[in-house]
């Protein structure tokens, strides 16, 4: 019965995480149509790619037994995020393209190092712990990325940049993988996803508090009053830039405790999914 329950939560986590991985599609369709990355950031996609690669590697049978569902979703996530990165490189301006290539080289180097060390220098439990720690660290980092959007919501008293369905998906995905990890007694899965589930719950609570305020300037002073009006405009602009930097869809949620919360474009794209 326990194995059936674990399989169920693993499959549900795959489905929800896939939705989160695909959430930036709208953003990239916009980039393709306009042939420009505008003010969007490519950093979240590179980081989510790394998170997916490490988690997919961790889930392989010779690294971590009985975690193939972690590999399936993170393998799919790796392909999806790689496509995002390529599209971003094609349409980014020269300076942004150079930064992206530099970051991509770092991602490749880190993943290659983990793979080579785990294959050539480690065996058995030591390999599992090493790969699990690497995946967990980046999973927690990805789950923590929405903190900037939560701060934005509190500051502006508006949920305009924190879509309810995205926050709910982050919570459900983190919870599914958290339970999956608990049933398998795997701390490298339940610890990062437990953090993701908690942060997703915090987002839902903030949404409940500020759900009636869906304007970026909610609670701000009336426009047209000298310095106050200027401050309001600056705050709204900062809010938009911050939202563009968070993405993931809330997104990148990932697996293994990897989720990636794509956090780099209009919030709907965020979360890199974690698993």
Give an account of the 3D structure:
The chain has helices at residues 2-22, 25-34, 43-58, 68-91, 94-120, 124-144, 147-156, 164-183, 187-210, 227-246, and strands at 252-254, 259-261, 271-274. With 275 residues, the chain is mainly alpha-helical. The chain has a 3-stranded mixed sheet with strand order 1-3-2, sandwiched between helices. α1 (2-22) runs antiparallel to α8, α3 (43-58) packs antiparallel against α4 (68-91) and α3 (43-58) runs parallel beside α5. The two termini are 22 Å apart. Mean pLDDT is 79; it is low at 217-233 and 245-274.
Largest sheet: 3 strands, mixed
List unreliable stretches of 5+ residues: 217-233, 245-274
First and last CA, distance: 22 Å
Q: What structural class do you assign from the helix and strand content? A: mainly alpha
Strand coverage percent: under 5%
The ordered H/E elements are HHHHHHHHHHEEE
Main-sheet strand order equals 1-3-2
Number of helices: 10
Any chance you could write out the topology, listing elements then pairs?
Elements: H1 2-22, H2 25-34, H3 43-58, H4 68-91, H5 94-120, H6 124-144, H7 147-156, H8 164-183, H9 187-210, H10 227-246, E1 252-254, E2 259-261, E3 271-274
Parallel strand pairs: 1-3
Antiparallel strand pairs: 2-3
Give the key terms.
single chain; 275 residues; mainly alpha; 3-stranded mixed β-sheet; globular; disordered C terminus
């Amino acid at each position: 019965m326990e194995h059936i329950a674990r399989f169920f939560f693993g499959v549900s986590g795959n489905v929800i995480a896939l939705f989160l991985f695909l959430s930036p599609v709208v953003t990239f369709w916009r980039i393709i149509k306009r042939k420009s990355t505008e003010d969007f950031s490519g950093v979240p996609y590179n980081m989510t790619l790394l998170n997916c690669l490490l988690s997919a590697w961790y889930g392989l049978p010779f690294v971590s037994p009985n975690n193939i569902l972690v590999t399936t979703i993170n393998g799919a996530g790796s392909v999806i995020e790689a496509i995002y990165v390529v599209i971003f490189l094609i349409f980014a301006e020269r300076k942004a393209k150079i930064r992206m290539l530099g970051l991509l080289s770092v991602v490749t180097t880190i993943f290659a190092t983990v793979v080579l060390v785990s294959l050539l220098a480690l065996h058995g439990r030591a390999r599992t712990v090493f790969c699990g720690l690497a995946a967990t660290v980046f999973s927690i980092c990805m789950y923590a990325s929405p903190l900037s959007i939560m701060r934005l919501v509190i500051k502006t008293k508006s949920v305009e940049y924190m879509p309810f369905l995205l926050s709910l998906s982050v919570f459900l995905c983190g919870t599914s993988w958290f339970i999956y990890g608990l049933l398998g007694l795997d701390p490298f899965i339940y610890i990062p996803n437990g953090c993701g589930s908690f942060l997703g719950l915090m987002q839902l609570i903030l949404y409940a508090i500020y759900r009636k305020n869906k304007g970026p300037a909610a609670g701000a002073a009336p426009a047209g009053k000298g310095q106050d009006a200027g401050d309001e405009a600056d705050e709204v602009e900062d809010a938009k830039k911050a939202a563009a930097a968070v993405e993931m869809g809330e997104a990148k949620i990932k697996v293994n405790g990897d989720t990636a919360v794509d956090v780099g474009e209009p919030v709907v794209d965020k979360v890199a999914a974690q698993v």
